[in-house]
Amino acid sequence: MIECRNIVKTYQNGDVETRVLKGISFKINDGEFVAIMGPSGSGKSTLMHIIGCLDSPTDGTYLLDSKDISKLSDDELADIRMQKIGFVFQAFNLLPRATVLRNVTLPLMYAGTAKEEREEQAREALRGAAFPEEFWNHSSNQLSGGMMQRVAIARALVNNPALVLADEPTGNLDTKTGEIVLDTFQRLHKEQGRTIVLITHEPYVAEHAERVISIRDGNIIEDSKVSRRRLINGKI
Predict the structure, then answer these.
(1) Would you give the DSSP letter of residue 183?
(2) Rounded to an integer, what distance in angstroms lies between the CA atom of residue 14 and that of residue 94?
(3) pLDDT per residue over 176-188, tens digit each?
(4) Rounded to two decimals, what is the model's pTM?
(5) Looking at domain 29-55+81-225, does it have CATH number 3.30.420.40?
(6) Is the dihedral of CA 85, 149, 55, 118 positive or negative?
(7) I need a labelling partner for 6 at 20 to 30 A (CA). Which of 23, 32, 101, 154 fits?
């Protein structure tokens, strides 16, 4: 699914050169649930942008589904994002006055999918995200933070992407609500075999994944399996 080979990212500001990623290498297989964890300034957000085809490395190779993404044009990267990646962001990024169903159909509208088909795919995605049907016609600004994030998860699923990329998805939520959202990711991984990459700075959030890649100062300092998975409804 994902292979990063000696990924380097350097930013130039006048005469000052800042190397944010310093030769990052790792693989993520189809169906894995991986957390990329690091403190502020570690390079995890830069790495997330490269994995999500929002940016390109300065040097090195990034393969997604065996395709070299490293040197693609902006238009080609946009096509990859639309076809292969579902994004879940900390800030939800929902249209506040639009209904839940309409928010989830938006990626399909941009892709030119027919109305009847996109609404059916949106309903399926909402079911996959365990979002209650009685709220499908509510405006997103009528929902709690946890429910808005589950709408955002459904929107990320609606194109049936190969990869779900979640950037600090519990950052705006209290701990209890955050657990519900993280349980949703675990179910998607366990029941649907989704490949999920979760970006976080919180160890307790990373524990919900099955593997954690820890980075600091632009380098991987640890890549290990989670020894004790969080429980879902009392079951491993």
Answers:
(1) H
(2) 37
(3) 888 988 998 998 8
(4) 0.87
(5) no
(6) positive
(7) 32
